Prior knowledge:
Blueprint: E1 2-8, E2 11-15, H1 17-34, E3 42-49, E4 52-59, H2 62-70, E5 87-91, E6 105-109, E7 119-123, H3 135-147, E8 151-156, E9 168-172, H4 180-183, E10 202-205, H5 216-230, E11 244-248, E12 252-257, E13 262-263, E14 275-276, E15 285-288, H6 291-300, H7 302-308
Parallel strand pairs: 4-15
Antiparallel strand pairs: 1-2, 3-4, 5-6, 6-7, 7-9, 8-9, 8-11, 10-12, 11-12, 13-14
Helix pairs in contact: 3-5
InterPro entries: Ap4A_phos1/2, Ap4A_phos1/2-like, Ap4A_phos1/2_N, ATP_adenylylTrfase_C, HIT-like_sf
Protein name: ATP adenylyltransferase
Domain ATP adenylyltransferase C-terminal: 196-309
Amino acid sequence: MSKGWNFHHGDHHDLSSEMLMARVAEVTETAVESGALKSIMTETESVIEEGIEFELRSISSYRRKSAAKKARDPDFNPFLPFERALYVCDVPGSTSTPDGAETPYVCVLNKFNVVERHMLIITRAFELQTHALTLGDFSALAHVLREVDGLCFYNSGAESGASQRHKHMQLLPTSATPFDTHFQGFRDDTPSRIPALEFAHLGMNLPYDESTRPSGIALMSVYTTLMGGLGITVGADGESSAPYNMLATRHWMMLVPRTRESVCEPNDLAGDTGVSLNSLAFVGKLLVKDRAQKETLLRVGLMKALSSVTE
């Protein structure tokens, strides 16, 4: 059980995984009832391409989300302040957060969720999404991963598919992905690429112990190694020198360098057929807004689409 969690400001509790997910379920129920949670309905199908399985989701409620986005002020920050109806708990950024102190991170539900119980770990104070992840960020992530065997991801920079400027990591409550068998090829001691996954990437196994699970220090160490392997540097202001996607479970971490946000058909110079790809595309989970985007991806080829935004 992990110390330092806070459901109601000032009231700290030990929190087991059952308690955290029960809290997420409770907040989900009330947020649905109040209309604060705007779940996006999708249809899911499995696509096999040259022996590699992908999960392709098509949005059926895209128009409603699109209209909501168009009505929003471009400078609007949904995390400052965050929406109280979506609040799950505070998350400590280190083991030394004193009792009663305000934690630097907050866990909230993703307002426009495709997957149930999709959580966001946001910085309480404003930081840019283009800033590199820090030991504090990874300590917060480690606290959550100790309780939830989930999949974390971070979209850094506009080309990575980041939709908000305020720094936030995302967590799905299950770590299972279509590419799981391929990720078993990552090594313990050095960054490596998986040959079957043709997009640019580097990954490593995380040091794992059932009693401690990944620590913030271990996550930060592997992240720093992978950043160096991709030639991505961090400036004095915290800015990363290039956009990328970071994905991690309790067992592995992968970084994907990005050159473009969207994939288009070869003859589409205007980008009208563009399909935006975020971190989840690189574990085999792709999302399209309509049939036209689905057809674009299938014509381009799913693995080729992933490669085209990382070259």
